[in-house]
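request received
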Amino acid sequence: MFNISVLREPESIEAAVELLHGDAGLRIIAGGTDVLIRIQHGAEGWTELLSLRRIKELEEISLREDGTLVIGATATFARIFQDAAIRRHLPSLAEAAVSMGGPQIRNVATIGGNICNGAVSGDSASTLLALDALLRLESLDAERVIPIREFYAGPGKVKLMPSEILTAILIPRDSYQGTGGHYIKFAMRKAMDIATLGVSALCRVRDGRFQDLRIGLGVAAPVPIRCLEAEAYAKGREITSASLSAIGGLAVQASRARTSWRASKDYREHLIQVLTERAVAEAAKRAGDPHAE
Amino acid sequence: MLNNNTAGVATLKRLALTVNGKPWQFEVDIRETLLDVLRNRLQFTGVKQGCAVGECGACTVLIDGTPVNSCIYLAVWADGKTVTTIEGIERDGELSEVQLAFVEEGAIQCGFCTPGLVLSTTALLDSGRTFTEAEIRRELSGHLCRCTGYQKIVDAAVRVLPPAVG
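response:
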């Protein structure tokens, strides 16, 4: 039994933003796999809920004519993993999706919830950062689209205004076309575990050289981060074990890993070095694959 | 039986759902989990409460054929849905193919995780897809067996699911 006093269940985005506008006490719930546990643990301020579960349009995943992939905020991880367009164009996002939780959680948990709870260990975060994903945030009288890099404010904190709902994640064609990507989740177990470290690499390759490279890291700093120095170093550089190793080193420099009960700072830095090299090497291999688009 | 929320109000909503082939309509408190309602209201006690935080899979039921942890699923969300618990798996008093496979492989020890595992395996079988052993392990990974009898559980699933090459 959860300590809930109000549960609003609008059936459209318009109705949802209107309810949110009129009641500052309402908090958003989607899949519920984090929020309900938070309530179970006695978190304050979660007694009035606005559920997004009846808004069908929020679940849709579509490929627009201009090549932009539009992922509705309440698309579940299971749906993202199974979606043909995502598997074809954003395979590293499909990998990230299937690494999250276990099957029953993936059947319910939503990508929008994973982003908005601001967890540094969120499995979608590093890949969405590497993809330069855009977030569409809607309120009663405004809509804004911002890069996901500007959304994270601190551990468990995001720049979502109280009147706003994250309605979609947009990935323009330029962000993914011709890339190869790979996501590595490191955890103590292969399932039902929180990442000790997450690395997502995305690159374009020509004639054995990086045309570009993007690296997203989870659990390497207070928020999910990009490794801009490593990315700049890689541009135009030949793909060799020495350059991969240097990229790993620059990724460690970009990080601000800390010691937690899951892992020490030193161990996390070791993971960043080694797993960044591996993720980038695999992404480069895939980018060289003629089937990659 | 209802614990009070801070407002001290029981907020009721009408719920219409089908459980194990039978339609039900009644009012539920918005604070109740689907697990509460299935066990306490409808007496489907084959749905087990283990961790109550979505980690162990003992409370797994099928909602419109999809495995879900009923302990972190509000009962009101099941409105209009079809729910299957372990009690709805046997047909005319006969064990299902999946249940038989679990029995024949000795995949049951204390039995607490078994209803959830049978339901997840049933969903895989009903999907009509083929599975490698690695995929089976991945698809059953949301169930904890504290007797640790995982190998026989996987054997039972391998026995009953169509194999994929790879």
